[in-house]
Amino acid sequence: MKAMLGILAGIALLATAAQGMAAVDHAEFVKGPFKSGIEVTKVCLECHDQQAADFMKTTHWTWAGTPNMVKGMEKSTKKYGKSNMINSFCTSIQGGKDGVVHESCGKCHAGYGWTRTDFDFTDKGKVDCLICHAQKGNYTRATVGCDIDKKSIDKKAMDLNVAAQSVGLPTRKNCGACHFFGGGGDAVKNAGLDSTLEKTKKSQDVHMGSKESGGQDMACQSCHVTKNHKIGGASSMMAHYDTRVNCEQCHSGAKAPHQKAKNGALINRHLATVACQTCHIPFFAKGQATKMAWKWSDVGKNITAEEQFDKETYAKHKGTFVWGMNVKPVYAWNNGLVERYMVGDKVKDPTKEVVMMRPVGDIKDQKSKIYPYKLYKGDQPMDAKYKNLIIFQQYKSLWVDYDWDKACRLGAEGTGLPYSGKYQFVNTVAYIAAQHEVAPKEEALQCGECHMGGSRLDWKALGYKGDPMQKGGRFGKAQKVAKK
């Protein structure tokens, strides 16, 4: 019977390909009842064994890849990713004996059972197909220790049978189940990427806005082109990418930008220096506020704080937060690489901000362009003797008893880094690329916002003598044009 179902499914899928990948009704092929997601995966593998094998080669499964985006590490063969890096949000999944923090952070992993460091990454039966493909049945992954618990989970009962029979190409809701909630809550980590984009209007994002509002209602993979389950994209917060996403994928050739613009030729001269996002994402966090700062050093204190934009600004187990809405980005040069703090790096000067991540590039680098960023600040513990940032155990430790010394000691058991028994807090800063919430063209930056007295860009901080319209640009041709 299973063989026959496999043959029928194969025929249906071939027919689907001929119809432009229209959705296949899996109700005919997937029969329950199911008691667990693993039982669903077992049925999926009867027809999609190769797809599971492909998925297991991706960073969505391994949470690591070669650091081809980190300056100075481009040729390294060692793997880096969420599994062994540190950030300035919930910091790391490595804290605690046997990686107990995986119980919490691993709940966004597209697999079942990654609760400790001994997870079997070769077991196809552990792949969670539903988190990316279920369209109905209210399928959700349980979460522990994150703000997602409070705000993101629909209270309706989950039905695995309906979920399994509803599978199709991923929607924004599928991708957003993890990516909207990065950093432990809705709108926390990314610049302009949160749950309001699941159903939105053109005014918030021209690509994801509904057709009724004049938008394109595009799925994430329309830009994040996917092949063999490898999803295109290069997050400024990570070390690895398979392929990049860029505006020219669509906006080139016959669809090149600014063809009908009154000053199209003049605008296009900017393309060698200014990224599309700089003009077309003038603000981010338009749907709801995003976290702009996180002060871990306030954990355990008795602080009474008012909300910002309906968001809490203090939680005793996490510290103090600052939120921003309709935020104007900061701008920096980038040539495609990033500088990044890696686990174990020494902090050279604890009195200065520790750079967790920032773009590489400058005005003299002809591969560099000016991009927009969310400037995110905070503080984190550093070992007072060894001068490296500490990976502490927040889950089942700090979040419960607010004991920093204990959290640092237990965290060391999961990382292998030594802990001297003394810690101090250092300030941190991170540049997070603003890539979403592309504004309608009518709301793109206008000349006067940057030039002729406009203050949008700090020209001298970017390496110019002043406004390039008056002082000249970085390329000779641009300077001559400016002088005419």
UniProtKB/TrEMBL annotation:
InterPro entries, alphabetized: Cyt_c-552/4, Multihaem_cyt_sf, Multiheme_Cytochr_ET, Octahem_Cyt_c
Ranges of residues in domain Cytochrome c-552/4: 198-252
Secretion signal span: 1-22
Keyword Signal: yes
UniProt keyword Repeat, yes or no: no
Pfam families attached to this UniProt entry: Cytochrome_C554, Cytochrome_cB
Superkingdom to which the source organism belongs: Bacteria
Keywords from the UniProt entry: Signal
Protein name: Tetrathionate reductase family octaheme c-type cytochrome
Organism: Geomonas propionica
